[in-house]
Amino acid sequence: MATIDLGKGMPATDLRDDTPVAGSFAGEDVILVRHGGKVCAFAGKCTHQGAPLDTGMVIDGTIRCPWHHARFSLDDGEAVSAPAFAPLDRFAVIEEDGIVSVTGKDQQERATPSVASIGKIVIVGGGAAGHACADMLARSGLGGDVTILSDDTDAPYDRTAVSKGYLAGDVERHEIAMPEAGLGRGPAPQVRAGVAVTSIDVNDRAVVTADQDCVPYDILVLATGATPVTPDTVKSADNVFVLRTLADADALKAAAEDAKRAIVLGASFIGLEAAASLTQAGLAVAVIARDSVPLAKVAGPEVGKFVQALHEEKGVTFHLDRELTRFDGNTARLDDGTTVDGDLIVVGVGVEPRIDLAKAAGLRIADKDAGGGVAVDAQLRTSVAGIYAIGDIASYPDPRLGHPIRVEHWVHAQRQGQWLARSLLGAVSGSYGDTPFFWTGQYDASLHYVGHVAKPDDRRVEGDVSAGDFAVFLHEDGEEQAVLTCGRDEIALVKEAAWDAA
């Protein structure tokens, strides 16, 4: 189908309310949207990973990306919700004599708001939550008051690419760097990479680093994330890798260059993403897992078998219902006596929240049923005044479920960081309540999960799972609380919007 040349225009009657139309102007992809009686035009691809926005949806004054659910304001193209940060380019539009046409790109600079200082803000952690919080504060003009202290030696980067595109060799290292917090509007936050915080002085409102530097704060945001679990059976072995940081991926990529066979321990999302990436990199991969069906405890056996089949079609072998008893650096021995040869092993059996810093400072820790992270209230405040917790460590009260949960999703962490920044600035009130969302790429299949349930036992499956065209509706206490989709982006977007508004 030919692309509409929006420089020449299109009939105004073809532009329906809140329905994006794809076109082009001077060789650039553009979307037209009629919303609230006004016609607007923006760049046609999401600034996160280039998804075509004409296949997205207009909801509550935003255009929403079909791939990873980023949101852009239809007022000005601003990226208002992660995982996108950069705004959409705007185009000038005229509607005359029944024709809508684009006349050029809007070159107007985006002004940085001027807001009153709220004091020195220290963010411990440069991952999804920490970077997003700093970015929103900086976009509001307060970047000069913000310091990120991160024990990661790299500046903030997109961790979702570590187990996917970067490990598979589809993207280069520099391509997964996060945009500078604040997008260059006003002062940028200070990012101190490779700096570990060892303690919090609650009384004097300061954090102490490993080199005994004392960093004062008025507001402290803990975004320390999680750390991979490493079973005792592999802790002392050689050629054992985890996959959390960019440095982890560097080490694994280097080892994989000289390897022919890889073992993945654990059939988690991260483990299976690693299996897919290593397979695409040319290694023979075997997966060892306790589960009878991969992902069944999260998504149900139907989806688990579908994902397993995707891997098996690519040559991955599975050893399920099995325990690893020993790995000597070259051979894994299982509990039934089976041996599996591998030049390296990647551990993907889960993560634990990094709460030692919070615990030592006397912050309240949630119990196991609430996720075991740092307990926060509906405004993401910890039990100590002036200290907040966001991201993987935060156990917060979910307004729909009616009980606390701790969520380990990249986009969810980003949105918590953004919401907290807006809350500190007085731009939002009430309780944090964004619906959790994550995606996983398994070869050519992309799975979207919206909402949260503890178990997938109560579920309803629609569509053809084996064909990769399905939706699984998940319930908790009789109420629909989550949906997992493949090939049905609209359902995921609609459910997310509805639950956000509930």
Describe the model.
With 502 residues, this protein is of the alpha/beta class. It is 19% helix and 33% strand. The protein is built from ten helices and 37 strands. Strands 1-3-4-5-10-11-2 form a seven-stranded mixed β-sheet, with no helix packed on it. A five-stranded parallel β-sheet has the order 14-13-12-18-30, with helices on one face. Helix 1 runs parallel beside helix 9 (410-424) and helix 2 runs parallel beside helix 5. It is globular. The model has no long low-confidence stretch (mean pLDDT 96).
Name some characteristics of this structure.
alpha/beta, single chain, 502 residues, five-stranded parallel beta sheet, 37 strands
Overall SS class? alpha/beta
What is the molecular shape? globular
**Spatial strand arrangement across the major sheet:** 1-3-4-5-10-11-2
Unreliable spans: none
Q: Mind telling me the C-alpha Rg?
A: 24 Å
Biggest beta sheet attributes:
7 strands, mixed
Give the distance, in angstroms, between the N- and C-terminal Cα atoms.
Answer: 39 Å
